[in-house]
Amino acid sequence: MNEALTKIHYAKPSITDLEVHYAADAAAHGWGEQCYAYIARFETAFAEFTGAAHAIATSSATGALHMGMAALGIGPGDEVILADTNWIASVAPIVHLGATPVFVDILSDSWCLDPQQVERAITPKTKAILAVHLYGNLCDMDRLERLAHKHELLLIEDAAEALGSRWQGHHTGTLGRFGAFSFHGTKTITTGEGGMFVTNDDALYENVLTLSNHGRARGEKRQFWASKVGFKYKMSNIEAAIGCAQLERVDELLARRREIFLAYKERLADIPDLAMNPEPPGTVNGFWMPTVVFPPRMGDMRRRLLDAFRQRRIDGRVFFHPLSGLDMFPSRPENHNSWDIPSRAVNLPCYHDLNMADIDRVATVVREQCRAASGS
Ligand SMILES: Cc1ncc(COP(=O)(O)O)c(C=O)c1O
Q: What pTM, to 2 d.p., does this model score?
């Protein structure tokens, strides 16, 4: 390992004086009458940014998914279809609610749900489709919406990784019954840990608002009176203060992600058959995580590249393992793309302060390893 090189992390937040100032203000003054002030401000600003009618700040995207699915009545006996390629957080709420996840394959270009496979997997027990916009890439929302409509299914969006991604002008998270976003420290905007539930459905909003407050309905006059058993997935006022600052900078943060993605793309453009995150016509990709998928002839590029990165003090990140390859779920190797792509894919470092010299350093290693794998 070359200790002289500075380390390139795969993700890192961008925190300026603005975030520090708002957080300090919340810590100093955000109590008593002001204890929800930054939370309300963050929710309003986030709803405005995404175009959602309603937003509820949460402690995580997982919590937002859990409450939304609970409010929609997903439970024992129900099946929920989602892509086999996913982070465990997308499936955990389905399991916690006693429903059955049904894993289907991804498309080879978007790495998101294959609508044809979704249709094949629909049974009388299917209650919902969970569309996860992986790495900022977009699910085919038109086809999924048509399927949901035809089979009377709920369409839910996990937009945890897709801030800034748009489908036909609509922000992700606003196209289904509800959407969930994550503000974990690796995400485009962060609150440390945190998330957001968004919906255009007034009744669902009221229901989740009540659930999110331990089952205490808005307007309830009796103190400590719960009308149902709810959840405690709230965001704190201090976290929301950081979120407000990040959201004020969202255009700058998204523009930088795009710049970084395009810089990688340019530097890797002449590697034959290398795939990266797509941005089909009619969509905007938030480019949360630039990803390279190498052609099968190059072999196990994940191992090769991550080893080389380690030698040069660069953090790489593995493409998600298929969920059906984990011990707690039935194995589904017939989901060919989900099982095949991970060994030849890697997420590249991406964060606001990554500079062009860092990008050159990463791209040089990728190019070297491609040449070595191709025997030239
Ligand atoms: C696709 C996806 N869904 C859900 C989550 C969960 O987000 P959180 O960590 O905020 O619960 C993540 C987090 O990384 C994610 O990538």
A: 0.97
